[in-house]
# Entry
Amino acid sequence: MKSDFYKEYIAPVVVLVAICLVITLALALTYGVSNPVIEANAKKNADAARMELLPDAGSFTQVEGDLYQASAKVYVTEAYTAENGGAVISVDTASFGGAMNMMVGIDSEGKVTQIKIMDHADTPGVGTKNWDGNNIVGGGRSEMQFGGVSELTASNIKADKNIQQITGASVSGGAIYEGVKCALEQYKSIGGAN
# Structure
Protein backbone atom coordinates (compact mmCIF):
# COMPACT_ATOMS: atom_id res chain seq x y z
CA MET A 1 0.00 0.00 0.00
CA LYS A 2 1.20 3.32 -1.02
CA SER A 3 0.82 6.14 1.52
CA ASP A 4 -0.32 9.58 0.64
CA PHE A 5 2.39 11.96 1.93
CA TYR A 6 0.01 14.95 2.08
CA LYS A 7 -2.66 13.13 4.12
CA GLU A 8 -0.17 11.61 6.56
CA TYR A 9 2.21 14.51 7.15
CA ILE A 10 1.05 17.83 5.77
CA ALA A 11 -2.69 17.78 6.56
CA PRO A 12 -2.28 17.11 10.33
CA VAL A 13 0.25 19.95 10.61
CA VAL A 14 -2.06 22.35 8.77
CA VAL A 15 -4.99 21.33 11.00
CA LEU A 16 -2.94 21.80 14.19
CA VAL A 17 -1.68 25.22 13.06
CA ALA A 18 -5.25 26.29 12.21
CA ILE A 19 -6.48 25.12 15.64
CA CYS A 20 -3.66 27.03 17.36
CA LEU A 21 -4.48 30.20 15.41
CA VAL A 22 -8.20 29.97 16.24
CA ILE A 23 -7.50 29.38 19.93
CA THR A 24 -4.99 32.27 20.04
CA LEU A 25 -7.54 34.58 18.41
CA ALA A 26 -10.24 33.46 20.86
CA LEU A 27 -7.94 34.07 23.85
CA ALA A 28 -6.96 37.51 22.53
CA LEU A 29 -10.61 38.48 22.07
CA THR A 30 -11.52 37.19 25.55
CA TYR A 31 -8.66 39.16 27.07
CA GLY A 32 -9.68 42.30 25.18
CA VAL A 33 -13.24 42.06 26.50
CA SER A 34 -12.50 40.95 30.08
CA ASN A 35 -9.36 42.96 30.92
CA PRO A 36 -11.08 46.38 31.21
CA VAL A 37 -13.68 44.83 33.53
CA ILE A 38 -10.96 43.20 35.66
CA GLU A 39 -9.03 46.49 35.88
CA ALA A 40 -12.18 48.44 36.82
CA ASN A 41 -13.02 45.92 39.55
CA ALA A 42 -9.44 46.02 40.90
CA LYS A 43 -9.56 49.83 41.05
CA LYS A 44 -12.95 49.76 42.76
CA ASN A 45 -11.67 47.27 45.37
CA ALA A 46 -8.50 49.29 45.96
CA ASP A 47 -10.52 52.52 46.39
CA ALA A 48 -12.82 50.77 48.87
CA ALA A 49 -9.83 49.41 50.80
CA ARG A 50 -8.26 52.90 50.99
CA MET A 51 -11.52 54.32 52.36
CA GLU A 52 -11.69 51.47 54.85
CA LEU A 53 -8.18 52.24 56.11
CA LEU A 54 -8.73 56.02 56.29
CA PRO A 55 -12.51 56.59 56.47
CA ASP A 56 -12.17 60.34 57.11
CA ALA A 57 -9.91 60.90 54.11
CA GLY A 58 -12.48 62.44 51.79
CA SER A 59 -10.54 61.75 48.61
CA PHE A 60 -7.16 60.41 47.52
CA THR A 61 -4.52 61.61 45.08
CA GLN A 62 -1.95 59.22 43.65
CA VAL A 63 1.68 60.12 44.36
CA GLU A 64 3.72 60.50 41.20
CA GLY A 65 7.47 60.00 41.07
CA ASP A 66 9.87 57.72 42.90
CA LEU A 67 8.47 55.19 45.31
CA TYR A 68 10.44 53.89 48.28
CA GLN A 69 12.22 50.55 47.99
CA ALA A 70 13.69 49.03 51.16
CA SER A 71 15.14 46.05 49.27
CA ALA A 72 14.50 43.92 46.20
CA LYS A 73 11.83 42.07 48.21
CA VAL A 74 10.18 44.96 50.07
CA TYR A 75 8.99 47.96 48.09
CA VAL A 76 6.13 50.43 47.65
CA THR A 77 3.92 49.77 44.63
CA GLU A 78 1.49 52.72 45.04
CA ALA A 79 1.08 55.67 47.35
CA TYR A 80 -2.02 57.84 47.73
CA THR A 81 -2.22 60.96 49.84
CA ALA A 82 -5.50 61.73 51.53
CA GLU A 83 -7.32 65.03 51.45
CA ASN A 84 -6.96 65.22 55.26
CA GLY A 85 -3.17 64.82 55.21
CA GLY A 86 -2.90 61.07 55.75
CA ALA A 87 -1.91 58.46 53.20
CA VAL A 88 -2.55 54.89 52.13
CA ILE A 89 0.51 53.11 50.87
CA SER A 90 0.57 49.76 49.04
CA VAL A 91 3.62 47.58 49.67
CA ASP A 92 4.81 44.28 48.26
CA THR A 93 6.84 42.30 50.78
CA ALA A 94 8.35 38.81 50.78
CA SER A 95 6.48 36.37 52.99
CA PHE A 96 6.48 32.62 53.58
CA GLY A 97 4.29 31.76 50.58
CA GLY A 98 5.82 34.37 48.28
CA ALA A 99 4.88 37.98 47.67
CA MET A 100 2.37 39.59 50.03
CA ASN A 101 0.58 42.75 48.94
CA MET A 102 -0.67 44.98 51.73
CA MET A 103 -2.07 48.48 52.22
CA VAL A 104 -1.03 50.59 55.18
CA GLY A 105 -3.21 53.48 56.35
CA ILE A 106 -1.29 56.35 57.93
CA ASP A 107 -3.04 59.34 59.51
CA SER A 108 -2.01 63.00 59.24
CA GLU A 109 0.18 62.62 62.35
CA GLY A 110 2.18 59.85 60.68
CA LYS A 111 0.69 57.04 62.76
CA VAL A 112 -0.48 53.71 61.37
CA THR A 113 -4.26 53.43 61.47
CA GLN A 114 -4.78 49.96 60.00
CA ILE A 115 -3.19 47.44 57.67
CA LYS A 116 -5.09 45.45 55.07
CA ILE A 117 -3.62 42.36 53.43
CA MET A 118 -4.76 42.52 49.81
CA ASP A 119 -3.11 39.39 48.42
CA HIS A 120 -0.94 36.60 49.80
CA ALA A 121 0.00 32.96 49.35
CA ASP A 122 0.69 32.14 53.01
CA THR A 123 -0.65 29.02 54.67
CA PRO A 124 -4.22 29.52 55.89
CA GLY A 125 -4.48 29.15 59.65
CA VAL A 126 -0.72 29.46 60.16
CA GLY A 127 0.73 32.53 58.44
CA THR A 128 -2.69 34.13 58.41
CA LYS A 129 -2.71 34.24 62.23
CA ASN A 130 -1.25 37.72 61.77
CA TRP A 131 -4.54 39.12 60.51
CA ASP A 132 -8.20 38.44 61.10
CA GLY A 133 -10.93 37.25 58.74
CA ASN A 134 -11.23 40.68 57.15
CA ASN A 135 -7.50 40.71 56.35
CA ILE A 136 -7.07 43.73 58.60
CA VAL A 137 -4.22 43.64 61.06
CA GLY A 138 -5.27 44.87 64.46
CA GLY A 139 -7.97 43.83 66.86
CA GLY A 140 -8.85 40.50 68.45
CA ARG A 141 -6.30 37.75 68.90
CA SER A 142 -4.45 38.82 65.75
CA GLU A 143 -3.38 42.12 67.30
CA MET A 144 0.02 43.01 65.88
CA GLN A 145 0.25 46.30 67.82
CA PHE A 146 0.97 48.46 64.78
CA GLY A 147 -1.97 50.80 65.43
CA GLY A 148 -0.62 54.20 66.47
CA VAL A 149 2.97 53.33 65.54
CA SER A 150 4.80 56.15 63.76
CA GLU A 151 8.28 54.65 63.53
CA LEU A 152 9.90 51.23 63.44
CA THR A 153 13.61 51.49 64.14
CA ALA A 154 14.57 47.87 64.85
CA SER A 155 16.25 45.86 62.12
CA ASN A 156 13.45 43.28 62.18
CA ILE A 157 10.40 42.14 64.16
CA LYS A 158 12.45 39.90 66.46
CA ALA A 159 14.61 42.83 67.52
CA ASP A 160 11.64 45.16 68.18
CA LYS A 161 10.58 44.89 71.82
CA ASN A 162 7.43 46.99 71.19
CA ILE A 163 5.81 44.63 68.68
CA GLN A 164 4.53 41.26 69.85
CA GLN A 165 5.33 38.50 67.41
CA ILE A 166 2.76 35.74 66.89
CA THR A 167 4.17 32.28 67.55
CA GLY A 168 4.02 29.94 64.56
CA ALA A 169 3.64 32.78 62.07
CA SER A 170 6.98 34.50 62.39
CA VAL A 171 7.77 34.77 58.66
CA SER A 172 4.41 36.38 57.88
CA GLY A 173 4.72 38.66 60.91
CA GLY A 174 8.19 39.69 59.80
CA ALA A 175 6.88 40.41 56.30
CA ILE A 176 4.15 42.63 57.71
CA TYR A 177 6.70 44.39 59.94
CA GLU A 178 8.98 45.10 56.96
CA GLY A 179 6.01 46.29 54.90
CA VAL A 180 4.87 48.72 57.58
CA LYS A 181 8.42 49.99 57.99
CA CYS A 182 8.65 50.58 54.23
CA ALA A 183 5.27 52.36 54.16
CA LEU A 184 6.30 54.70 57.00
CA GLU A 185 9.48 55.59 55.10
CA GLN A 186 7.43 56.33 51.97
CA TYR A 187 5.10 58.54 54.01
CA LYS A 188 8.06 60.54 55.30
CA SER A 189 9.55 60.86 51.81
CA ILE A 190 6.35 62.42 50.43
CA GLY A 191 6.41 65.08 53.11
CA GLY A 192 4.36 63.38 55.80
CA ALA A 193 4.78 63.91 59.54
CA ASN A 194 8.37 63.78 60.72
